[in-house]
Amino acid sequence: MLIGVPAETVPGETRVAVTSETAKKLTAQGHTVRVQSGAGVTAAITDAAYQAAGAEITDAAGAFACELVLKVRAPSEAELPLVKPGTIVVGMLNPFDAEGLQRLAAAGVTGFALEAAPRTTRAQSMDVLSSQANIAGYKAVMIAADKYQRFFPMLMTAAGTVKAARVVILGVGVAGLQAIATAKRLGAVIEASDVRPSVKEQVESLGAKFIDVPYETQEEKEAAEGVGGYARPMPPSWLERQKVEVAKRVALADVVITTALIPGRPAPVLVTEDMVKAMKPGSVIVDLAAPQGGNCPLTEPGRTVIKHGVTLVGETNLPALVAADASSLYARNVLDFLKLVLPKEGGFKIDLEDDIVAACLMTRDGQVTRK
Ligand code: NAD
């Protein structure tokens, strides 16, 4: 199969869908890999490294003129004219972007969105949401530590004692867990909140404290269980009680990292303007939900701003700030997904009996097929 790897063109997107490691594996399987010149540069992969892995270097048109195109982000409107009808595109195509999918379908693309893979054990090795959220959680803490003008660990020095930073993490999925682990390594004291009760044990096993907000009605319990491991919107009664508990912690916090998301919906507001006003000057909020509107209404997506004396970081693509590792994990996810669609005997197979393939298939034969 002829496989193309274009350079990403979304501003700030530094990742690449194929690394020299995965290019080598694909060429060893008998595929021809064409990488756009410079595609890996921001992820620390030179054209020479791709060539050493057996790939050919081409231009953007050459990378798109392939049977299978591997991308990080969906082809933009400017890129689509380079994509021939019938091309298969695998990437993070954003399953909730109805207009984007419509454009892909209209261009005749057979599109697979890896974010749509089920959260099952079999799909774990190709779970791009997890591999990238893990990086986002780590980088959020690194940025917070950089913006915060004090130490994270408790220090006893000849000049006196410095208190450990108090970190509050709101939303404990993959990103939140990594944020807890990273902040813990830096010596912070951590409290965390999530709607899902199963998270409590994970939070405590990482040495953080869980902010308990008991479920008082059957409706609250059922909502908290979520669907397929994901959160569902919680009833207002529970959210009100959560807000009271969270407000107390946020007022005492030095750093707040918010990661709360509900798939396909705007992010829930967890840190209100009043809560920000009550925070200590010099505190930092890193809002990982910024691309979905933010968990704090004061967050400005894509910007770092200071409001009421608090630094708010609205970075919208944290994995891209750790481009080399983010690419290397993403490229392995892609490679694992390809095992399901590239049979050893050659060609491209779309087996709709396979739950992962069926879930990821977004567009085919000019239609949006997203389930
Ligand atoms: P996510 O990014 O969709 O959401 C982040 C977190 O925000 C979630 O934990 C969610 O419960 C929480 N949240 C939503 N509303 C909230 C609110 N009002 N207050 C506080 N927290 C709120 O989550 P994710 O990281 O994609 O993980 C989703 C689920 O998938 C988790 O249960 C995770 O363990 C599971 N998972 C399973 C696998 C697997 O089995 N292969 C792999 C990865 C993740």
TrEMBL record:
<keyword id="KW-1278">Translocase</keyword>
<keyword id="KW-0547">Nucleotide-binding</keyword>
<keyword id="KW-0520">NAD</keyword>
<dbReference type="InterPro" id="IPR007698">
    <property type="entry name" value="AlaDH/PNT_NAD(H)-bd"/>
</dbReference>
<protein>
    <recommendedName>
        <fullName>proton-translocating NAD(P)(+) transhydrogenase</fullName>
        <ecNumber>7.1.1.1</ecNumber>
    </recommendedName>
</protein>
<dbReference type="Pfam" id="PF01262">
    <property type="entry name" value="AlaDh_PNT_C"/>
</dbReference>
<dbReference type="Pfam" id="PF05222">
    <property type="entry name" value="AlaDh_PNT_N"/>
</dbReference>
<keyword id="KW-0521">NADP</keyword>
<feature type="domain" description="Alanine dehydrogenase/pyridine nucleotide transhydrogenase N-terminal">
    <location>
        <begin position="4"/>
        <end position="136"/>
    </location>
</feature>
<dbReference type="InterPro" id="IPR007886">
    <property type="entry name" value="AlaDH/PNT_N"/>
</dbReference>
<comment type="function">
    <text>The transhydrogenation between NADH and NADP is coupled to respiration and ATP hydrolysis and functions as a proton pump across the membrane.</text>
</comment>
<feature type="domain" description="Alanine dehydrogenase/pyridine nucleotide transhydrogenase NAD(H)-binding">
    <location>
        <begin position="145"/>
        <end position="314"/>
    </location>
</feature>
<dbReference type="InterPro" id="IPR036291">
    <property type="entry name" value="NAD(P)-bd_dom_sf"/>
</dbReference>
